[in-house]
């Protein structure tokens, strides 16, 4: 019985534009790259901290910016990168929504699990 009460839901969230045919545009991977840029001051350092090639990180960010229609990063060549106000706002909205979804999913799951086990 202890094993079943240790179960927890995992929620994977992504942001997309309504009516888009490209699917998700901003998910955990892009969010992690943006967090890395915020923390390390460059996309290159963010990619390295994730064990990702810079070329892949650059392609992901470029493709995301194209799909969204606005830049996520201010690039300053050798001086690194920072998040644009739009990038910062989207990242914060994503993180807060993700946190709330995880909290809600855990609550609903636990309530239903205990109810189905008769442990109100």
UniProtKB/TrEMBL annotation:
Gene3D superfamilies from the UniProt entry: Winged helix-like DNA-binding domain superfamily/Winged helix DNA-binding domain
Highest taxon of the lineage: Bacteria
GO molecular function, one term: DNA-binding transcription factor activity
Pfam families in the cross-refs: HTH_1
InterPro entries: LysR_HTH_N, Molybdate_resp_trans_reg, WH-like_DNA-bd_sf, WH_DNA-bd_sf
PANTHER family in UniProt: DNA-BINDING TRANSCRIPTIONAL DUAL REGULATOR MODE (PTHR30432:SF1), TRANSCRIPTIONAL REGULATOR MODE (PTHR30432)
Name of the protein in question: LysR family transcriptional regulator
Native source organism of the sequence: Berryella wangjianweii
């Amino acid at each position: 019985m202890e094993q079943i009460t240790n179960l927890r839901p995992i929620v994977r969230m992504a942001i997309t534009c309504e009516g888009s045919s490209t699917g998700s545009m901003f998910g955990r991977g892009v969010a992690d790259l943006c967090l890395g840029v915020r923390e390390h001051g460059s996309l290159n350092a963010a990619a390295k901290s994730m064990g990702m090639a810079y070329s892949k990180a650059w392609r992901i960010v470029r493709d995301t910016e194209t799909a969204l229609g606005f830049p996520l990063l201010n690039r300053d060549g050798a001086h690194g990168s920072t998040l644009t106000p739009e990038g910062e706002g989207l990242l914060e909205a994503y993180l807060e929504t993700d946190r709330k979804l995880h909290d809600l999913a855990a609550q609903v799951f636990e309530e239903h699990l205990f109810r189905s086990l008769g442990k109100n």
